[in-house]
Amino acid sequence: MRLICATFLLMVSGLIYAQSAPPNPGKLYAVIFDVTVNAAGNLETLKVAKVIDPSTHSTDAVNVAVPDSYLSAAKALLIKTNYGPDPTHFNTWLFYDPARPNRADIDPQSGRP
Questions:
Q1: Which of 29, 38, 61, 90 is in Cβ range 3.0-4.6 Å of 50 for a Cys bridge?
Q2: Residue 98's pLDDT band (boundaries 50, 70, 90)?
Q3: Phi and psi, residue 112, nearest 5°
Q4: What is the DSSP code string of the chain?
Q5: Cα distance between residue 18 and residue 12, in whole Å
Q6: Region of residue 24 (phi > 0: left; psi between -120 and 50: alpha; otherwise: beta)
Q7: According to the model, what pLDDT value does residue 4 have?
Q8: How far is CA 12 from CA 9, 16, 20, 22, 67, in A?
Q9: What is the pLDDT of residues 11-63, one digit of tens each?
């Protein structure tokens, strides 16, 4: 009887823990940017075009807010590149992890989680 009670309590506590866990820990999104560079090839403007969820294999936008701290980190990362004068307007993307809003250099393929 004690074994049955202990098993039942373990199952109930496991269910409670599973329901209290944060949803999608470490979920990555992709932020698509509209980028404009000047004649010298330096970053001039950076605007969010949309945010997508790569795990859905769709380019449909998802409703995920991108904080200013992430935009600053993205700009600091992208400004390091000299793009050349052509093209002057293009799109690029970076991974975004809501748990780490100050990091724009996330690349799960290279081991920089």
A1: 61
A2: very high
A3: -100, 75
A4: -HHHHHHHHHHHHHHHHHHHSPSSTT--EEEEEEEEE-TTS-EEEEEEEEEE-GGGT---B------HHHHHHHHHHHTTS---SS-SEEEEEEEE-TT-TT----BTTTTB-
A5: 10
A6: left
A7: 61
A8: 5, 6, 12, 18, 37
A9: 545 555 444 444 455 789 999 999 999 888 888 999 999 999 999 999 999 99
**Could you give the angle at the alpha carbon of 43 between the alpha carbons of 33 and 111, nearest 5°?**
60
Q: d(Cα 41, Cα 18) in Å, to the nearest integer?
A: 50
Q: Which residue has the tokens 């949309």?
A: 50
Distance CA 71, CA 80 (A): 15
The two tokens of residue 70 are 């992430």
pLDDT at res. 23 = 44
Structure tokens at 77: 């990362």
With left for phi above 0 and alpha for psi between -120 and 50, is residue 62 left, alpha or beta? beta
Per-residue pLDDT of 53-83, as tens digits, reads 999 999 999 999 999 999 999 999 999 988 8
